[in-house]
Amino acid sequence: MTWRPVGLTRDVPAGRVMRAWVDGQDAVVWRSTRGVLSAWDNRCPHRGMALSHGFVRGEDLACLYHGWHYGAEGGVCSLIPSHPDLTPPDTIKTRAFQSAESDGVIWVRLEGSPDLAPPAIAPGLDPLRSFEIRAREGDIAHGAAAKPFEPAILSLLFNPIAHDRTLVTVLIDAQATSDQRKLASRWCEDVRREVEA
Amino acid sequence: MSAAFTLYDYVLSGNCYKIRLFASLLAMPYQSVAIDFYPGYEHRSERMLSLNPAGTLPVMVTSAGGQVLTETNAMLAWMALHDGGAQTPWFPAVDPALGPQVQQGLAFGAGLTDSIGLARLHAMLDWPVDGEAAKRAGLKHLRALELHLTDRQIDGGLWWAGAHPTIADLACFPYVALSPDAGLEHDGFPAIRRWLYAVRSLPGFATMPGIHPLHELR
Ligand SMILES: N[C@@H](CCC(=O)N[C@@H](CS)C(=O)NCC(=O)O)C(=O)O
Ligand code: FES
After folding, report:
1. B46-105 residue pLDDT tens
2. Which residues face A61 on adjacent strands?
3. CA-CA distance, A80 to A60, in Å (whole number)?
4. ipTM score of complex
5. Nearest-CA residue for atom 4 of ligand 2
6. Is residue B13 within 6 Å of ligand 1 at its C-beta?
7. What's the CA-to-centroid distance between B174 and ligand 1, angstroms?
8. CATH code that applies to domain A4-109
9. How many C-alpha atoms does B79 have within 13 Å on its Cβ side?
10. Are A37 and A31 in contact (CB under 8 A)?
């Protein structure tokens, strides 16, 4: 399976939870208080609630519905609040995916050999923003190429999240000024308007 | 402490929530009168129409002077000034840089009522409006807000304008936070998520149905 760029490191600080799509798989991406990043199936093993609505409690992610806790290391259930005296069996656990971070981008893949790192990004780039376009990757790449951004070097990463929706992650020359970054952010909107029209 | 105002209130209304939230942040006491908005349509009763001919909620009646305010933006401004006078950080009205920015955010917040708010009424209470059109308008607003907050982030800022939250943040917060009720998720909007989290982290933050507290802060 391929590594997919699901968002920016900056956008998932410690204690935050985010939903992501990986090859059609609904996933929850979250970071524990101590900074451990995890990517799991976005389904609570208890009753199926989306774990992306949950909240971080230390090194656990707690489900919004009935508060079951799952630990950052391995996704094993560690607490069932309605049965506080019960030690949950190790078999109650979430499906964990591989996650990695490099150059400020979060990558997830469903499976694959553990020692294969995500693709390297050209040096000297800063993450700018990630945003959704209701179009396919090919059409977006085409639209972006037709509208070259002059003020600074940009690099685009794509993650298909549905047949007609794509998450685009944009990186910009690390030397770019604030004004150039804001222009680039507007350029993203221009490309989206054009491609979606 | 005596009530600063009376609020004609409906618990599921995002506009009423703006006022309850700000009162909670300021620890400003007020008296609440519950109105049966749905299914009773009490906001369109003779008694309420004579108070507010527009037939909308909330309605605020100030205790001193008995001013009747029917626009949430005006109520937020009144509360900020009542609390902190002209120096209030919540409403830097005459600051040449921030004042116009805050007005921009207040107007944007009203636009959220007319887009996301309407789409939500349609989704939740089957309000007789074009739900799809309202939802499209709502998506446009979320994208515009994401762009604005991304600009702010590039400048090292967190709030709608300046270094302190203002009534512009509060005017925008409820319908953005409630947009999933209208089928508009926050997934593709990282800057909005960061800002929502910041508002929810404010000391004295109050919730409403559909807007959860930050459990991890407890
Ligand atoms: N301009 C008013 C609008 C308030 C508003 O639209 N309130 C909604 C409830 S959240 C309402 O009362 N709608 C009445 C109706 O559509 O019948 C404000 O900003 O305060
Ligand atoms: S569905 Fe998650 S704890 Fe019940």
Report:
1. 999 999 999 999 999 999 999 999 999 999 999 999 999 999 999 999 999 999 999 999
2. A56, A70
3. 12
4. 0.95
5. A66
6. yes
7. 13
8. 2.102.10.10
9. 31
10. yes
